Amino acid sequence: MNAARLLALVVAVSLLVPVGAVGGVPAVRLTVSDAVVAPATPVVGEQVTVTVTVANSVGSESAVSVDQLRLTDGDREVARATRVGALSPGDAVTVPLAASFAEAGPRVLTLSVVGTDANDRTVRVDRPVPVVVESAPPLVELAVAEAAVESESRLAVSLSNPTTAPMRNLVVAVNESLGQAVESRRTLPTLAAGETATLNLSVVPDEPGVRTASVDVTYTTASGVARTTTFARSVAVDPFVDDVGLAVVPVRPDEAADDATGGLGGLLGGLGGVAGVGGGGAVTTGGDGAADDPLPIRYEVTATNFGTVPVDSLVLAPTTENETLPRVRLPESLAPGESATATLDLSAVRAPATVTLDATYRAGVRAGETNATFRHTPAVADVRLTDLDVLRDGDAEGRVTVSGNVANLGDADLTGVVVAGVATDDVRPVYPHRDYFVGSLGGSDFAPFELTAAVNESAAAVPVRVTYRVDGERVERTVRVPLSDDDAEANGPLAASFGGGPVGDGAVGAVAGGTGGALFALVAGVLAVGLLGAGALRRGPVRGWIQRRRGSGDSGSSRRDDAEASRRDDAVTTRPDAFGPGRSEP
After folding, report:
1. Among positive and negative, which fits the CA dihedral 362, 364, 366, 372?
2. Last residue of some domain: 376, 396, 424?
3. Residue 430 shares a structural domain with residue 520
4. Same domain, 439 and 555
5. What secondary structure does DSSP assign to 339-397, as a single string?
6. Looking at the predicted structure, is the pLDDT value of residue 516 above 90?
7. How confident is the model at residue 217 (pLDDT cuts 50, 70, 90)?
8. Is residue 448 a part of any domain in this protein?
9. What is the per-residue pLDDT for 221?
């Protein structure tokens, strides 16, 4: 038998007990017509009001004075009212009694009404008042994240059960006093004694200023009674501000470490390659003329949220005048004041261009966009043949030797550089240098080469083809080297412009020689002065080797002796002071 049935039985038995006057005065009939408990199921610590209606029966022979009403819980008095007043036969009076209880559980209170009749005799009436006291409601805490108009704001509702019994069927619902609810309702099957749980709701505020956020918590007590409690707090709501800033910073490649063959050593090694009969060409790793700061191909884009609402789903879409580049997405959501960085790879952009960076995102519940522009100047390759020299052997075969330097006037690094003669009806590449492997060329770097070919009387020029790789793309260029001194005077060593075209897409990013603009020609001329000086340094041993070769024949031993002599000449000719003022001879 549960507590509710026990209380109902007690009340029923109590109503069967006749209520009469105490002291042997049956002529005065004092009655308690009603006793209402509110709330019907109070909780621990909550104020309970028992409203009592006391009446003097119509059949009473005299009036009665109601002296006091007492509400007791066993031996403990929980409420009292005194000097209520006199009641004539047929009159009634309603008296509220307030009480509270520190412990949960069912109990039967005793209501005692004491009065005095006209003959000064005491009249007393006792009546039971059953009450079921529930445990305390859950403790509620409401945390609101930074709230702004037109932005979904999270409401974190923490529920704690302070009682010794579990609570069941908890439902948390947000009121729309703050704005439109997005996640308006959350449920929790049970909350054990002493346990705390957090439920998340969300709402979109519609007005700025100090607003009220409130939630209703409905739950079922251990005795099966459904109850509801409400919690509210003030929230400061910011106005809607959408402000996203973009900062673009170039990421420069790490500077290459100094190599043992770089600088002067690299140049000496190149000369040795020229002098060796069949020894191949120079492999240089960049000299003193390389740029101190390599041009960037990647950029760091930093997006900063300067507004009042969160920003998410941010996508960066870079474009140039003629090209749409791959988009970049920032996965993070940016709270107000936060930043995120993405890397933009522009290695596919092989020519200088103005890049427009369009950013689209969601600011709060609205769509937002912003943009930024910056100038991208990639490293390009500008390959030239400089300091060209054509020597005729005068033999019956019409053998000629073409020597010079292959120079990279650009910023990009070249790999796999090969200089080769091109066969035509009038020209035939011959031993020992049908082609010449140079290797790698850094920006503003050069290396010597030498080619041999047989020409007939109709030949006016020797076609020379240069192939290389830049940024992984293979490029092929061809230049015609005049055999006539007059043609050579007219063209000049730096005027050798490459014809032909790239293999595949290799032309992208490779700036060919040729006429170009006036400004580019001026810059190329300035660079050529330095290259000519260094080229003259390298050409001396080559000429000496050729002259010695004419007088000594083509035997293998003679070629080896010539190579040794050439290397000795190299060591003497390439004195350090030939590379610029201020250096002393070792």
Report:
1. negative
2. 376
3. yes
4. yes
5. EEEEEEE-TT--S-EEEEEEEEEEETTEEEEEEEEEEE----B-EEEEEEEEEE--STT
6. no
7. very high
8. yes
9. 85
Q: How far, in Å, CA of 183 to CA of 185, rounded?
A: 6
How many domains, the chain? 4
Residue-number span of the structural domain to which 416 is assigned: 276-289+380-579
| Of 128, 95, 98, 102, nearest in space to 38 by CA | 98
Among candidates 241, 283, 227, 233, which has minimal Cα distance to 148? 241
By the 8 A CB rule, do 497 and 512 touch? yes
Distance of CA 117 to the CA centre of its chain: 88
Distance CA 495, CA 418 (A): 20
Q: Is residue 166 part of a domain?
A: yes
Q: How far is CA 112 from CA 15, 70, 125, 131, 160, in A?
A: 15, 5, 6, 16, 39
Secondary structure of residue 88 in the 3-state scheme: coil
In-domain check, residue 246? no
- Do residues 73 and 179 share a domain? no
SS3 label, residue 521: helix
Beta-carbon contacts of 240 under 8 Å, excluding residues fewer than 6 positions away, are: 148, 149, 150, 151, 308, 309, 364, 366
CA distances from 9 to 15, 37, 132 (A): 10, 17, 14
Assigned token pair, 490: 């007219």
* The pTM of the whole model exceeds 0.70: no
d(CA 287, CA 274): 18
Angstrom distance (rounded) from CA 362 to CA 368: 6
CATH number, domain with residue 230: 2.60.40.10
259 found inside a domain: no
Residues in the chain: 586
**Euclidean distance between CA atoms 364 and 239, whole angstroms:** 11
Average pLDDT, the chain: 76
